[in-house]
Design goal:
single chain, 387 residues, alpha/beta, Rossmann fold, 3 domains, 5-stranded parallel sheet, 4-stranded antiparallel sheet, 9 strands
Amino acid sequence: MSPLRLYIMRTRGKAIFSEIFLTVSTGRPCRGVWTLYFSKVGSSILDSSHASEGFMVCNCLPMPYLFKFIPVKLTFGLGRRMANTKMSTERVLSLSMRPKTLQECVGQDELVKALEYQFSVNRIPHFYIVHGPIGAGKTTFARILALALQMGPKEEEPFVIPDEMWAKYKKYDIKEMNAANQNGIDDIRGLIETMRYQPIAPSKCKVVILDEAHQLTTAAQNALLTETEDVAKHVYYIFCTSNLTKIIPALQRRAYMVSPKGLSTDETYALLEKAAEQAAFIDDIKPLYDALYVNSVSSPGLILQAAEKLAKGDWKESAKMLKDLTKEEVVTMKMCILGYMKAILIKSSGQKASTMARAIRILADDNDMLPRFLANVCLTCETITGN
């Protein structure tokens, strides 16, 4: 049973055996994306003389063929041994780069100022609806807001959350529910019952974060009307939704609306640069930036997901994901527009009603990307106004 020696070879894309092996003992900074190669010791192609004290040596079963490689990403320091090197991407970027304060949320300065003012004057709403597209940071906003509520009103920096509070997040009276699984009237009645009791230390209040709130049934939403209008002092509700039109108007009127905005072109590029540094990605990020721009992707979470794919060297998967995400945005927008058009249809008659019904059929069947869908909407509006 022959031992196998682990070599490291720097690559850009596909593995090329003519690349020069890099030794850590040279003292030069070695940072980037690497591929690990397993080879039989002393093979004629991967000569063992290239090994240095910086490389790991391991014994394992013989390979069924001469070479086998496993793509990984490592960050090297000056003269640091590989055995002590920590992987720079232990967690996916959307988790490792998740903001812990509202000040860290890119491009949300106006929103943060409005929320800070509420806390500084102690006029804090008891019911928030955080709405926006997929990946906009709704859940992140809700969790930061929930911990800020546990700290209570502060005149200065109310959303700077200490690390020890994040470490004890699950000990606070913060209940996270997903309306995709708990959306019925019985679920909400049970929730309302538990919220009547006072919080237990270290909590100062009870907070409910209801994710995917638009999936609540109409009966469940109606059950919350009284609860959200006459809220107990120790109770706060935070709804997160990507489809605000499915929240009944009566609930919307009772809530303070929080809508994280999409990133500008400069903010998108700055976020990509930060993600590239976090993932130790050394190639050009411009192709990903261009793809984000073409597909109109501006949500921080989606940008980091695409960057994660690219950092793993899978550009095709990254591009495919961007197209799929754009399709998801079309679905959300389509549901909003079709709901509005159906409301118009109910109030219409004659030729206008016929035109609207035909437009609804066309738009409902259109599965193309965003530009074509918007073009169809514009043509429909022109036809209706012409009549």
